[in-house]
Structures are given as structure tokens and as C-alpha cells.
């Protein structure tokens, strides 16, 4: 390595077990000028002046020291109600910033959007997180170039006028540096608004649910209409009402609306084999289906804003099995996420069907699935108090044959 001072920093940092944000900044934002070296009995300390590091809140007093010429800036960037800068001043000071290392906190600001951060492409957190909260006039976020957030918490809430996000390119997230050092790999996303009609676009929702290790703890509002055609694949419109069958097309990878399967279109269900995501709900009613095996590529269902369970399957007298081999996540803001009602008794007698949604897909708490009004816990308890189901079915058959034999003898 050509720079011995940078090498010394890396050596010192490698021996520091606790996360040190100052060292974290210095290792990320280069162009260092050596000021002095302090050697103690335990270790050597190197004090540097880093031209792309900014400490403190941003206002008219501190704006002159902000490293506005840097494309990568290390800062715990906080803008709040004490910020006396205009939107144009902020646009000017941030015009070259593409990568922010540290954290971003917008709290109780006067701005209607965060478009002054439109050039920002990534945020990599140190000790704090990505937070935009309680901004009373903010109508949209507007960070249209933001693609990456490396923070353990993405928190956008309490913005009472927020109508939309407008962060269409955010498609990658990973935990903060601090949490990675502690071997914590989860990412929590909280996004909500008090504004009636707040919505998340189908592209934004698709990006969120594709992030690995993400916990979509709270997503408010609904999905914006109309749906947006993806860069690859094909988005098809489904039904507006659950009593209206869906016109099933070939080659759809995304469905927008209520995917309704009933006697009028059940013969075309195999065309749904290409569907990967439903922005809406899956509603299967009054069919002669014996199994649901035609959604083998379905990965996600986002039923935000629909007021229905993500999956409703009811009044299918021959239906006794289903298979969703690639289903990873269901997001619902109603009560139960999955409801099976008045199908065959197989779903009630064998709790594995209910447990698939609760255990494998994590639909617990108020999202718990319901099978004929029963929770998975109830079905398991009932199954444990009776003979194994297969034995019971065989016993029923033996009894029927025995009665028929007795009838023939008599």
C-alpha cells in the first residue's frame, strides 16, 4: 500500500473490537492530511484532517464547512426545524454528493420534499440510521437516484402530508456497519403516512420485497394505481371486484388488482404459471379444482390497501391440496392474511396446510391465517387429540365395508 498512514489506520482499526464511528469515517472518506501522532504504552493514535468529513447539523453557520465538492461524504447528516437554509441552498451544497456515509436524519423540517438530495445514490450507516420523520409539509421523498441503503433501519413515518415516496430506484439494502460487526443481518423497513391516499408504486413495492433479510415491519397505505410496467417481464391488470372473474392472459409475470378465479375462468388457470408477484389479492371461489398447483412461480403477494386477505379460498368442494413452492412473502394490512373457508375437510384435519403460511411464511400475530375460522394453534391441538388422520380415514373405510358385508349377509 502506497500510503503508510492509511495502512496504520487499518491496523489500528483491526484491533478495535468496538465500533468506532470516527475511525469508520476516516477509513471511508479519503484525502487525509496527517496532523500528529500520539504513541502511548498500549497503542499508537493517528490524528488526521479528512476533507470529506462533516460533523454536526447543517445550517447557515456550518454550511461553509460542508465538503460540497466531494462525491463521497462522511457525516451524521441531520436537518431539522432549526435549519435556516432554503431548498435552493441545500440543492447547491449537495449537488456533487452521491454517497453519504454515516446517517441521514430529516426531522421536523419545513420542506415539501427531499429533492435537494436528488443526486444521492447511496447511504451507508455508521451508528445511526436512515430516518425521515415528522416533517409536517413533506409530500414526497423524491430521492430519484437513490439505489442503495446500508442501514439496519429505514424509517419514514409521521409525515402527515406524505402522498408518495418517489424513490423508484431503491433496490438494494443491507445492515449497517455497526450491526454487521455484531453479526446482525436483519433490515427493518417502516414506511407510513397519515395522509389519506398515500401509496407506494408497484415498482417500489417490488424492490422492497425483493430485498434479502428484510422485515417489512410496517408499510402503510396502498399500491398506487395504475401499476407500472416492469423493466423486464409483463404486468397485467386483474379484476376490480371479487365477483368479477379475471381475464387471464399469457406471459404475465406481475398481476395488478384482484386475481379472481371462479367457474367462468377456471379452465385457464395454467396461464398463471408465469406469475411471480400479485399486487393485490388472490381470490378463488366456487370452482371444481382439486388442487392449487398452477402458481408454481409465485414469489410475493402484496395486498396493501385492499381491505381483503392476501389469499381467500372458499366454497371449493373438491379442493384438498395446494402447492406454492416459491412463495416467499405475503404483505397484508388487513386482519388475517390467509383465509380458507368451506373447502374439503383435509385442510381442517391436517394442520400442515395452515402451518405453511404461519411458520414458513411468518404470518403470525394479527396476520395469522384462518382455516374455517380456526387458527393453526387450534387445528394442531385438535389434531393431537384424535387418531392420525390417515388411520381415521382407513377406519371409516373399514366400517363402511363391514356394514355392506353385514347387509349382504342379512
UniProtKB/TrEMBL annotation:
The keyword Repeat does not apply. It comes from Caenorhabditis nigoni. Residues 70-163, 251-344 form the Receptor L-domain domain. The gene is Cnig_chr_V.g17948. Residues 1-22 form the signal peptide. Keywords: Signal. It comes from the Eukaryota. This is Receptor L-domain domain-containing protein. InterPro entries: Rcpt_L-dom, Rcpt_L-dom_sf, SPS2_domain. PANTHER family: RECEPTOR PROTEIN-TYROSINE KINASE.
Amino acid at each position: 500500500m502506497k500510503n503508510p498512514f492509511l495502512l496504520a489506520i487499518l491496523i489500528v482499526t483491526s484491533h478495535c473490537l468496538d465500533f468506532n464511528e470516527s475511525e469508520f469515517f476516516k477509513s471511508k472518506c479519503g484525502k487525509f492530511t496527517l496532523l500528529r501522532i500520539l504513541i502511548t504504552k498500549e497503542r499508537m493514535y493517528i490524528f488526521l484532517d479528512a476533507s470529506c468529513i462533516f460533523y454536526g447539523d447543517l445550517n447557515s453557520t456550518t454550511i461553509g464547512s460542508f465538503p460540497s465538492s466531494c462525491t463521497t461524504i462522511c457525516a451524521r447528516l441531520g436537518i431539522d426545524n432549526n435549519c435556516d437554509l432554503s431548498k435552493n441552498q441545500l440543492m447547491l451544497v449537495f449537488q456533487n454528493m452521491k454517497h453519504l456515509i454515516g446517517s441521514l436524519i430529516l426531522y421536523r423540517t419545513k420542506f415539501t420534499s427531499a429533492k435537494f438530495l436528488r443526486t444521492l445514490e447511496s447511504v451507508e450507516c455508521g451508528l445511526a440510521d436512515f430516518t425521515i420523520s415528522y416533517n409536517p409539509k413533506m409530500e414526497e421523498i423524491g430521492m430519484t437516484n437513490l439505489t442503495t441503503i446500508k442501514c439496519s433501519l429505514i424509517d419514514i413515518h409521521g409525515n402527515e402530508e406524505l402522498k408518495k415516496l418517489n424513490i423508484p430506484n431503491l433496490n438494494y439494502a443491507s445492515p449497517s456497519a455497526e450491526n454487521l460487526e455484531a453479526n446482525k443481518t436483519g433490515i427493518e423497513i417502516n414506511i407510513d403516512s397519515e395522509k389519506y391516499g398515500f401509496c407506494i408504486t408497484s415498482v417500489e413495492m417490488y424492490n422492497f420485497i425483493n430485498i434479502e433479510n428484510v422485515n417489512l415491519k410496517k408499510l402503510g397505505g396502498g399500491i398506487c394505481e395504475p401499476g407500472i410496467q416492469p423493466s423486464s417481464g409483463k404486468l397485467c391488470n386483474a379484476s376490480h371486484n371479487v365477483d368479477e372473474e379475471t381475464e387471464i392472459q399469457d406471459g404475465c409475470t406481475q398481476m395488478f388488482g384482484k386475481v379472481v378465479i371462479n367457474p367462468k375462468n377456471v379452465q385457464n388457470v395454467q396461464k398463471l404459471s408465469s406469475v411471480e408477484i400479485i399486487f393485490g389479492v388472490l381470490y378463488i371461489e366456487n370452482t371444481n379444482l382439486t388442487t392449487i398447483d398452477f402458481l408454481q412461480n409465485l414469489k410475493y403477494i402484496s395486498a396493501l390497501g385492499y381491505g381483503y386477505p392476501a389469499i381467500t379460498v372458499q366454497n371449493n368442494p373438491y379442493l384438498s391440496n395446494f402447492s406454492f413452492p416459491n412463495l416467499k412473502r405475503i404483505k397484508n394490512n388487513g386482519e388475517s392474511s390467509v383465509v380458507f373457508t368451506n373447502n374439503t375437510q383435509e385442510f381442517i384435519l391436517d394442520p400442515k396446510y395452515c402451518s405453511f403460511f404461519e411458520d414458513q411464511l411468518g404470518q403470525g400475530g394479527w396476520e395469522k391465517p384462518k382455516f374455517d375460522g380456526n387458527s393453526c394453534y387450534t387445528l394442531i391441538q385438535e389434531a393431537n387429540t384424535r387418531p392420525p388422520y390417515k388411520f381415521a380415514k382407513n377406519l371409516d373405510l373399514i366400517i363402511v365395508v363391514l356394514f355392506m358385508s353385514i347387509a349382504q349377509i342379512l
